[in-house]
Specification:
By secondary structure, the chain is of the alpha/beta class. Helix content is about 65%, strand content about 10%.
Length: about 450
């Protein structure tokens, strides 16, 4: 009997069907990933354009502030020159006033001397008048005498004429002195008027100088304000934390302390990861140029304030606060799940107290909290559960916690992802920041 062997076939129709299905799945996955990559690329390009536009606006504001500062410096220099000119003019007026005062003093002394001389000449005039009267009496008496005394009478007549001539000369000199005194008095009045004008001019110059000083003080203050504003603009343009614009006056730091924050992956411990989280929070806190008040919430399965004062704001001290926060976080041991819903719900209690910015630090998707009906928990996979919880958080932020309110701006949420591999986590944190006017940055693994 002849034995026949059947030749084995490597491929059959079933194997071809399996291969075709596998190839189709691979192509489908490739197309899905390609579409998501294009979407992410378009979003990143749009974000880059927005950041470039903001940076250009900041540079324009900086250039305007610098130009305005230069213009104010020119005005200050011009006002300083005007002040120096006014001071020189004031000094000249003061010297002129001193000269006039000296002349006035000399005129007063000359008038006193002339008055004294006039009194002496008046006395002499009165003496000469009395003597003349006596001579006239003697002449009249001598005329009654005999002719023997005619010679004596002639001598007396000659003496009388001489006395009258001296009297006329003295009278003319007295009249001249009176005129000179009157002129000196008029000059004195004019000098007093000029002195009053100089004093008034001096007061006016002093008022002008005081006004110029006040104006220069105001300009210096305005210049200081503009310099501070320019420094703030430069700081806002230059101080950026890994792509995040550093803004916020009343800021909440929301830190994930679930068990994964101490792991590289499910089976690998990361001894430095939690310490890096604390250092990053402190470094970011130190880099915020406008920070005035702050608060820190840590969360795992439940959220809690890092410090015991609860929902009250803490005053920020740039010398001590960052190190105090870092040391306090270092005392915590990460453990438990990630209930991000409860953390954000507690965080938004501070919105009514002026909260304007949140910085969220996390390494995983939410896996606990509201957003899934209890009867569905057992039917959903971990990926589906995480996705529904993340969608519920984003929807609640838009419709409730961070919805627009009249007269109150929305809270800016920035997200920082730590040591993660899942693109779903990156997409969630990016969308969370983008929908709330913030930015997202991913921290690489060590």
């Amino acid at each position: 009997m002849r034995v026949r062997h059947r030749i084995p076939s490597i491929f059959n129709l079933s194997m071809v069907d399996v291969l075709c299905c596998a190839l189709g799945c691979v192509i489908l996955l490739w197309l899905i990933n390609l579409r998501e990559a294009k979407h992410h690329e378009e979003s990143a390009e749009e974000e880059h354009r927005r950041i470039t536009s903001e940076l250009a606006g900041i540079r324009v504001d900086r250039d305007k502030a610098i130009a305005l500062r230069k213009q104010l410096e020119v005005q200050i220099e011009s006002l300083q020159k005007d002040k120096n000119n006014l001071l020189n003019s004031l000094n000249a007026k003061q010297a002129e006033a001193a000269d006039l005062a000296q002349q006035l003093k000399l005129s007063g002394q000359r008038i006193a001397s002339l008055e004294s001389e006039l009194r002496e000449r008046s006395k002499r005039y009165e003496a000469e008048a009395a003597r003349t009267e006596a001579l006239e009496k003697e002449l009249r008496l001598s005329e009654k005498r005999s002719e023997k005394e005619t010679a004596r009478s002639r001598e007396l007549t000659a003496e009388l004429k001489e006395t009258r001539r001296h009297y006329a000369a003295e009278k003319a000199l007295a009249s001249a002195l009176e005129k000179e005194i009157a002129q000196r008095l008029r000059d004195l009045k004019d000098a007093n008027k000029n002195l009053e004008k100089l004093v008034a001019s001096r007061h006016s110059l002093q008022r002008d100088l005081e006004a110029r000083d006040r104006e220069m003080t105001m300009l210096r203050q305005q210049n200081k304000i503009l310099q501070g504003e320019a420094a703030r603009v430069r700081a806002a343009a230059e101080k950026r934390f890994a792509g995040i614009t550093l803004t916020g006056r009343r800021v909440l730091f929301l830190v994930d302390m679930s068990a994964s924050m101490d792991l590289v992956d499910e089976n690998t411990k990361a001894p430095a990861k939690w310490a890096d989280v604390g250092s990053t929070v402190a470094r970011l806190m130190s880099s915020l140029p406008d920070l005035e008040k702050y608060q820190v919430i840590v969360f795992a399965e439940k959220p809690a304030f890092l410090f015991a004062n609860g929902e009250d704001w803490l005053s920020f001290n740039p010398q001590s606060t960052p190190e105090h926060v870092r040391n306090t976080l270092a005392k915590i041991t990460p453990k438990g799940g990630t209930n991000m819903y409860a953390a954000l719900q507690l965080a938004f209690h501070l919105r009514a107290k002026g909260m304007d910015t949140i910085y969220l630090f996390s390494d995983g998707l939410p896996n606990l909290g509201e957003g899934i009906r209890p009867e569905l928990l057992s039917t959903l996979s971990e990926v589906e559960r995480n996705d529904q919880l993340a969608r519920h958080i984003r929807h609640t932020l838009q419709s409730n916690w961070n919805r627009p309110l009249p007269g109150q701006p929305r809270v800016r949420i920035n997200t920082i992802g730590f040591f993660y591999e899942s693109p779903d986590l990156g997409a969630f944190l990016w969308a969370l920041a983008r929908e709330n006017e913030g930015s997202f940055v991913g921290m690489s693994k060590p």
